[in-house]
TrEMBL record:
Pfam families: DEDD_Tnp_IS110 (PF01548)
Name of the protein in its database record: Transposase
Signal peptide (residue range): none
InterPro entries: Transp_IS110-like_N, Transpos_IS110
Ranges where the Transposase IS110-like N-terminal domain occurs: 4-103
GO biological process: DNA transposition
Gene Ontology molecular function: any one: transposase activity
């Protein structure tokens, strides 16, 4: 099983993929241009990891209109795509990173 996280933006999206052991599958994040050609190239990249769409769970934040085309494209190609609540993903990130931790000296 592979877990695909997509950070949605206006012109391009940034993708990170991990496996069931939380190991990154790609060394660098994947940049997906927000157009049909970019979406097709992204699917080609996923197919190099596994040709079975059921091997992927894809999550993207519901951040307005910018992710709608990608969501529909991936769904139409048989991928399991979940819309994520941005508030919940922010809270999860805050709880699992040290970015906002203050230290006293």
């Amino acid at each position: 099983m592979y877990y695909v996280g997509i950070d949605i933006a206006k012109n391009f999206h940034v993708v990170t993929i991990i496996d069931e052991n939380e190991v990154k599958v790609t060394q660098k994040p994947i940049r997906v241009t927000n157009c049909i050609d970019g979406f097709s190239k992204f699917i080609t990249k996923l197919e190099t990891i596994s040709s079975n769409t059921n091997d992927f769970i894809i999550g993207l934040e519901a951040t307005g209109i910018y992710g709608e085309n990608l969501w529909e494209f991936l769904n139409s190609h048989g991928f399991n795509v979940k819309l994520l609540n941005p508030f919940q993903t922010t809270r999860y990130r805050e709880q699992h990173t040290m970015k906002k931790v203050k230290t006293t000296t």
